[in-house]
TrEMBL record:
Residues 10-70 form the HTH tetR-type domain. GO terms for biological process: regulation of DNA-templated transcription. Residues 33-52 bind DNA. One of its GO terms (molecular function) is DNA binding. This is TetR/AcrR family transcriptional regulator. Keywords: DNA-binding. PANTHER family: HTH-TYPE TRANSCRIPTIONAL REPRESSOR SCO4008, TRANSCRIPTIONAL REPRESSOR. Gene3D superfamilies: Homeodomain-like (1.10.10.60), Tetracycline Repressor, domain 2 (1.10.357.10). SUPFAM superfamilies: Homeodomain-like, Tetracyclin repressor-like, C-terminal domain. It comes from Niallia endozanthoxylica.
Length: 208
C-alpha cells in the first residue's frame, strides 16, 4: 500500500517519519499540521500526499510503523525459551524499559496514540490496539510452563486475573499520563509497582 514511500532511500524515510511523529506527539491528531511536517521533513506537501493519501492515512501508518519497529526488536531480545511465566513477564518489563531509552521518539508517539481520542481516527486505533494485543498475548505466552501454578485453582481464571491486573496497572498509568501537562509516563515507578504485584501473584498462584 505504501510502496512509493518504501521505495525512498532510508534517510528520506526517516526524515518524514521523524517529522510526522514529532508533530503528532506534540499537538495531537486534530491540531497537527501537515504544513509543519513537510517543512520539518524538507519535502513538498504534494509529495507527502503522494506517499500517503491524507493525514489520517499518514497517522495510521505511523502507528503501524512504530508498533512494528518496537515489537520486532522486542522479540529479538526476549528469551522465549524461558518457560517460567513470571520470569518471562519480568524480562518483558525490563526490555520495554531498555527500548524506551533507544527509541524515545517512537515511544512518545505511541504513548500519545494510546491517549488519542480524535473522533476521526478513534475507531481505527481501537481496532488496531485490540488486534495487536490479541496477537502478541498468544505469541508472548507460547511455550510457558504452567505446571508451576497451583493445581487447586482454575488456570484460565488465574491467567485472566493476572492479565486484568497488568491491564489495570497500564490503564492507571495511561490515566495519570493523560492528567499530566506533559503526558509523561513514569516507567521506573510503573516497573517497581509491577514488581510488587508480581511478588503477590506468585505467592498466591504458584506452588509453594
Amino acid at each position: 500500500m505504501f510502496t512509493k514511500f518504501w521505495n525512498l532511500d532510508r534517510e528520506k524515510q526517516d526524515r518524514i517519519v521523524n517529522a510526522a511523529m514529532k508533530e503528532f506527539s506534540q499537538k495531537g491528531y486534530d491540531l497537527a499540521s501537515t504544513n509543519q511536517i513537510v517543512k520539518e521533513a524538507g519535502i513538498s506537501k504534494g509529495l507527502l500526499f503522494h506517499y500517503f493519501q491524507n493525514k489520517k492515512q499518514l497517522y495510521l501508518f505511523l502507528f503501524d510503523y512504530g508498533y512494528d519497529r518496537i515489537v520486532e526488536e522486542f522479540y529479538q531480545k526476549i528469551d522465549l525459551t524461558q518457560m517460567d511465566f513470571f520470569k518471562r513477564t519480568r524480562e518483558a518489563v525490563m526490555i520495554k524499559m531498555e527500548l524506551l531509552t533507544v527509541y524515545p521518539d517512537i515511544f512518545k508517539f505511541m504513548e500519545e496514540a494510546l491517549l488519542e481520542d480524535s473522533a476521526e481516527i478513534k475507531v481505527e486505533l481501537e481496532k488496531k490496539k485490540k488486534e495487536f494485543i490479541e496477537i502478541n498475548m498468544e505469541k508472548f505466552f507460547e511455550g510457558v510452563d504452567y505446571s508451576k501454578f497451583r493445581e487447586d485453582v482454575d488456570l484460565k481464571i488465574v491467567l485472566k486475573i493476572i492479565t486484568f491486573t497488568l491491564e489495570k496497572l497500564s490503564d492507571e498509568a495511561l490515566f495519570k499520563a493523560k492528567l499530566s501537562p506533559t503526558h509523561e509516563f513514569d516507567y521506573e515507578k510503573i516497573r517497581m509497582e509491577a514488581e510488587d504485584y508480581f511478588d503477590v501473584l506468585m505467592k498466591g498462584f504458584y506452588k509453594q
